[in-house]
Design a protein that fits this description.
Blueprint: H1 2-37, H2 40-43, E1 49-53, E2 57-58, E3 62-65, E4 68-70, H3 72-84, E5 87-90, H4 96-105, E6 110-114, E7 124-126, E8 131-140, E9 156-160, H5 164-172, E10 177-181, H6 184-193, E11 198-202, H7 203-213, E12 218-235, H8 242-250, H9 254-265, H10 275-332, H11 342-359, E13 363-372, H12 382-399, E14 405-408, E15 413-419, H13 423-441, E16 448-456, H14 463-480, E17 484-487
Parallel strand pairs: 1-5, 1-6, 9-10, 9-11, 16-17
Antiparallel strand pairs: 2-3, 3-4, 6-12, 7-12, 8-11, 8-12, 13-15, 13-16, 14-15
C-alpha cells in the first residue's frame, strides 16, 4: 500500500516537471539571447570613449561651428551614445581631406558619416548605414535637365576633393572633365562665377549653401548616381566597436529618425521689407528712365543734324563731281568748237607714237588750216570767223572715222590723228575732208581758202618732228592754191 502511494506521488512530480519544462527552457533562451545581444561595454560600469572626426563644412549633414559638432550626424551620435553607452569625443579638423587622413592614421578612431568605397575599405571597416540622401547636379540657370553623368557631355564638373563621387566618376565616366574643389560652398561659388559648368553635391547641403551664400543664378538640373548611403567608418584597429554601433543603429526608434530629418530639412526663407532699397531702386529706375528719354532726344537730334549735313555733303559732292567733269572736259576740249585741244592732241599723238614703236603699226597726221585771203582780211568780222570755225569742226567730225582724233590745234589750224592708217588711206581722207570743207562750209568763197598737209609717221620720230614735216606739207599746199593737199616727204 505504501509502495503504491509512493509511486503515485512520483508520477505526479514527474508530470509537473514535464509541464514546467518548456517554460523554463524559453526563459533560459531569452536570458541567453539578452546576454549575447547586450554589448560588452554596456555591461561594464565605465563607458568606453571613442574619438571621431567629421566633415567640418558639410551642413546640414555635419559641420564644426565654434569647435562644436552640429548637424544630422551629431544628433545620430548623441542618440547612439545614449543607446550604446559609448562616449564620443570630437577631434576637430580643418577639411574633409584632413578628417580622412586622421582616421587613416589613427588620430581618430571613427569618422562619423561617409559612403563605402573600394579605396576607403583599405583602411576602414563600416557600420550599417543609418542615413540615406540623394546627390544632385547643379548648374547655372538656363541649363537643360541633365540625365545623370551621362548627360553632362563636355561640361566641366566640380567635385569636392576626397568625396566618393571622385572615385565613382573616374571609374565609370572617365571621359568627364573634373575639377576638384575643397568644399561644396567653394564649388558653388565657382559655378556662379562660370569657372565650372556643373557641380555635384548632396541635396540638403547644396540647398543650405545656396541660401546662405544667396546664390540666385543656379538651379538643380538632375540627380547624380549613386545616392549617399551614409555609415560610420571605423579604423581597422578599432573594429571591435562596429557590433556596438550596429546594435545601437538597429534600435534607433523610427520617430527619432523622422524628428532628426525634420529638424535639419526645415528650410525657412525669411523676407524682410527694406524700404531703403526700395527707394534707392525706384530712384535708380526713374533716373534710368530720364537718362533714356534724354538720350533718345539727343540721338534723334543728332540723327536729324547728321542727315541734314549728309544731304548737304551729298549735294556738294554732286556739284563738285559735275564741276570736275566740266573741268575735265574743258581741260581736254576747245571752248569754241568743242573739239579736243592742243594738249589732248599732243598726249594722244605721243601714245600713238609709243604704240608705233612697240607694235610697228603705222599712223598718219593731217593738218588742215582755214585762212582768209590777205586782200580780204578787213572784210570778215569776228562773229563770221568763229561761225566758220564751228562749221569746219562739225564737218571734220562728220567726215573722219570713229577711230580718228580731231583737235583744234591753233586758231585756224585743225589736226586729225589717224591711227593705223597708211599714207595712201590718209591721202584719201585728207582729200575728202578738204573737198567737203571747201564746198559745204566755204561754198567756194573767194575770200577764204582751205589747205591741208599730210605726213606718215617714221621710225625714231617724235611728235615735234612729225608735226614739223606735216606743217611743211601744209605750207606747200598754200603755195599751190585753194583746196590743195600736199604729202610730206
Amino acid at each position: 500500500m505504501v509502495f503504491l502511494i509512493s509511486f503515485r506521488c512520483l508520477r505526479l512530480v514527474f508530470l509537473a516537471i514535464l509541464l514546467t519544462l518548456p517554460y523554463s527552457v524559453e526563459l533560459a533562451a531569452q536570458a541567453l539571447q539578452q546576454n549575447v545581444s547586450q554589448p560588452q561595454s554596456m555591461n561594464n560600469t565605465a563607458p568606453r570613449e571613442v574619438t571621431y572626426c567629421v566633415d567640418p563644412d558639410w551642413a546640414p549633414y555635419e559641420a564644426i561651428r565654434n569647435n562644436n559638432h552640429v548637424g544630422i550626424s551629431a544628433d545620430y551620435i548623441q542618440t547612439i551614445s545614449e543607446l550604446s553607452g559609448l562616449t564620443f569625443k570630437l577631434v576637430p579638423t580643418q577639411s574633409w581631406e584632413q578628417s580622412l587622413a586622421y582616421v587613416q592614421q589613427g588620430t581618430c578612431q571613427v569618422i562619423s558619416m561617409l559612403n563605402v568605397s573600394d579605396f576607403r575599405k583599405q583602411f576602414l571597416d563600416f557600420s550599417a548605414p543609418y542615413f540615406e540622401a540623394p546627390n544632385i547636379l547643379v548648374a547655372r540657370s538656363g541649363t537643360p535637365i541633365l540625365q545623370g553623368y551621362a548627360g553632362i557631355g563636355h561640361r566641366t564638373v566640380g567635385v569636392v576633393k576626397g568625396y566618393r563621387q571622385v572615385e565613382y566618376i573616374s571609374r565609370h565616366y572617365p571621359e568627364l572633365r573634373l575639377k576638384l574643389v575643397q568644399t561644396e560652398s567653394e564649388g558653388l561659388a565657382e559655378l556662379a562665377r562660370g569657372d565650372i559648368d556643373v557641380m555635384v553635391g548632396s541635396l540638403l547641403s547644396v540647398n543650405t549653401h545656396i541660401n546662405n551664400q544667396k546664390i540666385d543664378n543656379v538651379s538643380i538640373v538632375g540627380y547624380a548616381e549613386p545616392f549617399d548611403s551614409l555609415a560610420f567608418g571605423v579604423n581597422k584597429s578599432s573594429r571591435d566597436i562596429i557590433p556596438i554601433l550596429n546594435t545601437a543603429i538597429a534600435t534607433i526608434p523610427e520617430n527619432r529618425k523622422v524628428d532628426i530629418y525634420k529638424q535639419w530639412n526645415n528650410v525657412q526663407v525669411r523676407y524682410e521689407r527694406d524700404y531703403f532699397k526700395l527707394v534707392v531702386t525706384t530712384c535708380f529706375v526713374l533716373l534710368a528712365i530720364v537718362c533714356l528719354v534724354w538720350r533718345n532726344r539727343t540721338v534723334s537730334q543728332f540723327k536729324r543734324l547728321t542727315k541734314q549735313k549728309n544731304d548737304e555733303i551729298e549735294s556738294l559732292q554732286t556739284t563738285l563731281l559735275d564741276r570736275n567733269r566740266t573741268l575735265e572736259f574743258l581741260s581736254a576740249h576747245d571752248t569754241l568748237t568743242g573739239l579736243y585741244n592742243r594738249n589732248h592732241m599732243i598726249q594722244k599723238a605721243e601714245e600713238e607714237i609709243s604704240r608705233f614703236h612697240r607694235f610697228h603699226t603705222t599712223a598718219s597726221l593731217i593738218v588742215v588750216e582755214i585762212e582768209v585771203k590777205r586782200d580780204c582780211r578787213g572784210e570778215l568780222s569776228e562773229f563770221d570767223r568763229e561761225n566758220i570755225l564751228k562749221q569746219v569742226a562739225s564737218q571734220c567730225l562728220a567726215t573722219v572715222r570713229e577711230v580718228d582724233i580731231v583737235s583744234r590745234f591753233t586758231g585756224e589750224q585743225f589736226i586729225i590723228l589717224c591711227p593705223q592708217t597708211a599714207l595712201d588711206a590718209g591721202r584719201v581722207l585728207a582729200d575728202r575732208l578738204v573737198e567737203c570743207i571747201d564746198q559745204d562750209v566755204l561754198n567756194n568763197n573767194t575770200k577764204m581758202q582751205v589747205s591741208a598737209g599730210l605726213a606718215e609717221l617714221k621710225e625714231s620720230e617724235n611728235f615735234t618732228d612729225w608735226l614739223e614735216r606735216t606743217t611743211k606739207a601744209l605750207y606747200h599746199s598754200k603755195r599751190l592754191g585753194i583746196a590743195k593737199v600736199s604729202v610730206a616727204d
